[in-house]
Fold this protein.
Amino acid sequence: MAKVFIIAEHRDGRLKKSTFELIGAASAAGNETHAVLLGEGVAGLANELAHYGAQHVHVIENPGLKFYSTEAYTKAVTEVLKANNPEIVLASHTPTGRDFMPRVAARLGVGLASDCTQLKFEGSNLNVRRPVYAGKAMVEVEFLGSGPRLATVRPNALGAPKADTSKTAAVKNVTVELGSLKTKVLEIVKGSSARPDVTEASVVVSGGRSLKSADGFKMLEELADVLGAAVGASRAAVDAGFRPHGDQVGQTGKVVSPSLYIACGISGAIQHLAGMRTSKVIVAINTDPEAPIFQVADYGIVGDLFAVVPALKEELKKVKEH
Amino acid sequence: MNIYVCVKQVPDTETKIKLNADASGIDPAGIKWVLSPFDEIAVEEALRLKEKNAGSTVAVVSAGPSRVVEAIRTALAMGADTGIHVDLPENADTFMAAKAIAGALKKESKVDVIFTGKEAIDDGAAQVSQLIAESMEIPCVTVAVAIEYGAGTAKVKREIEGGAFEIVETTLPAVIAGQKGLNEPRYATLPNIMKAKKKEVKALKAADVGVSASDQKIRFKGYQLPPPKQAGKKIAGDAATQAKELVRLLHEEAKVV
């Protein structure tokens, strides 16, 4: 058993599923599970952290934490950790977690295992495995020296636990002095949709150059809307200007691991496969029966995506309505 | 301005990864080593900033075994002026690499800005940019897609999540980690490749920058290749039949919808 601290993440007033995954895993392994909740007006979220297994919630309310900033998060998280001496610290390998956790590790003078996909709690030690070369190989990360074990965990890698609304946690309010900061968030430019980030979504619908144009992706967006999915794209589609760079899935884009990945008109270059092969279920729709994507697909449809995708959308609607 | 770029040499994305005999690492035979793609973006950004500011210089820093000098030469061929190579063992981790690079930068007379790639495509840790900044006690802005320079400051548009962006103002010097979309890296021309061979690359040892074995905090071991995937099911019929059968399988068999 270890004292495990989990840095909770929230967006638009809601806790992230990836945070529940971490709390669920730590608590299921019998650890003393703490969550750290930072922000402004977030104290109300503490109960939900308890439902997934957090026994203690450390709430840091500060106007300086209203928006995420590397400096403020690093400072606040480091202080809480130093005051509590946990043996293990976990955060999600999200745009936020991957940004501040290295700085926290540096301030604690310890190592950080990034983007882990397997966790095993062994007493006060943490045994982790992670993909390298974008999933072309897996390694175990050995922590050298003493001090807390820090890891960021890939969203969707552990599986979502069930909530138990009868559970409660001891909530502690913590005050942190943020002091003067060298960086300032001036503005948040909202994305054009409310869709989840491609790295965090449970379902990703991805398209290649055979969508023919940016307009061609509308069909995939409609399919994604039925599934509550994120939209991804191959490098070819991004380079052709059909989608923004942030949507690119692959070794030179983003590595994703959803429960369901639907590849539409993507042939499956090595660097693309590397970015999505850890998805639990892979569907490929392609006109070319020899396309490499079919080698990793659980379900393959050889056919014209312009006919299959609209039909798929209608069929999914029927299932979703039941 | 004194502009610095930190780069890493990585296996090309088309490289098939094989393990060495005792699975303690990858088999170096047959690997095509390249400058990490996000670092090309960092080099390009440095060159563009230099071109806008007469009298500026761009120095490229890399830490690793002697082969990484090739990556420094690639950046020099794109147009960087000088290189710094810190000799580190093959298995150095992010912490050792960052301490070595920061140590080399601290030896320089003046550092105005440091560019990096948002992550290297081999271990994809996305740690070194932030760790260099911590070691130098300066800010770090990651995943930058646009930069506007002011007097001693920079306004950086950085990608956050779900297609959203954040505009961050930072003081300089700072580490700025580039993401795709920041620019389109140039190709090295043949005359520039020739010229790059003659440019100075300073050689430093780990001890010169205060790095010792205890600066390594993690180690990769027990390498495995992913298990081969079993052949999936091909679904036959016309589009309507295929769609119906796929949804049935996803719902009843895979239970993901």
